[in-house]
Design goal:
four-stranded antiparallel β-sheet; ten-stranded mixed β-sheet; about 35% strand; 4 helices; Rossmann fold; homodimer
């Protein structure tokens, strides 16, 4: 399975997870995220952003370590994160799109990034997105039936209805089970746990964010 | 104006803002948030939580500095944050309910706390809630017309549609204006700025989170 790794520019480097280095994978650096990748020895397929909080010397480091650099005006309709996904859709046909550097700092940025999945233009890539930081892994699911696997280092798992949900079922692989439950409004069902190595979940309508997390 | 201050138990003490100490105000401490208040000299009106990650000595500190302590079983349907708001609605009739200690750490916790406003049982207090940390202030608005004031230390302001929105208007107090725009799905309109000391915004349907933030 090949992946596109996108390092966003969150200021909270304490929560950053660095992507794995794999020959078949691709790397996008967004604004300060491009600098973080470049300084850590990654060769970046595409660096983009307005780079307005970066020095000229730092910009040079990014350019030297990037196949391509695209600079935007600071004032534009899309956020840098949205633009990175527009390019991801256009130029990188990977099975997974993994996002790093999205946590900490500005809450409006975080909410905007998570709410990207509500935008119709990104619907085709929603289920390929994975958000990773030190204590959380988030994936999105469209209606269907799925076998989920426990991450060894994570204690909790949570099912977040980004929309109303119908017939949500969690089988005995989970501590708290559900049997065809309906939820009329977006609801966060958090702090569930795997009691086995895996568990099956299914639902008929809506969009679910599944998060594995630890304290 | 009197306020109820609720300190939640987020592990990220770097982002914590401590509430002001005012004689007419009330204080709720939730789990480790109760310890943080007690250790910082606050006399707490109500401490609650499962306290399962706190030592006996720490529990004593909380008890000594609290008017009332309610301990829950760790396994319950509501989160500690939800329970604190249930008690807030029942016992504290303040004009504002200000939440602290909600950021950092587990993303499922954060999403759950922000999504509390989607739950019908909390509808009556949605517009009294304020979320504060070091870099963000968040308030919720129901349909209407409002004059918003710039916080001197915050550069950005963002309008987040928690639902579809109709006839969203932002007047010339803001850098990016809108005139009766409709949004068919939840959308984050972020990184706007005040260009004057205040600005008027209005909308006819939906729920808006207004965030002032800084890097």
């Amino acid at each position: 399975m090949n992946s596109l790794h996108i390092m966003l520019g969150s200021p909270d480097s304490r929560q950053h997870t660095m992507p794995p280095l794999k020959e078949q994978d691709y790397y996008i650096g967004v604004d300060k995220g491009a600098l973080l990748l470049a300084e850590n020895g990654y060769y970046i397929d595409l660096s983009l952003g307005d780079f307005d909080s970066i020095t000229d010397a730092e910009k040079l480091i990014i350019e030297k370590n990037s196949k391509k650099v695209i600079s935007f005006e600071p004032e534009k309709d899309d956020t840098d994160a949205e633009l990175s996904l527009v390019y991801a859709m256009q130029f990188f046909d990977t099975e997974q799109i993994i996002l790093y550097g999205w946590s900490g700092g500005r809450l409006d940025h975080l909410m905007s990034i998570l709410m990207i999945v509500m935008q119709p233009r990104f619907k085709s890539i929603v289920t390929r997105l994975i958000f990773i930081n030190q204590t959380n892994t988030l994936k999105f699911y469209l209606p269907g039936s799925y076998l989920l696997f426990k991450e060894p280092d994570k204690k909790y798992c949570s099912f977040i209805g980004m929309t109303p949900l119908s017939n949500l079922t969690l089988d005995k692989g989970f501590k708290y089970t559900l049997n065809n439950n309906n939820f009329d409004y977006p609801i966060a069902l958090i702090s569930n746990e795997f009691v086995m190595e895996n568990g099956r979940f299914s639902f008929d309508d809506g969009l679910v964010a599944f998060i594995q997390s630890k304290d």
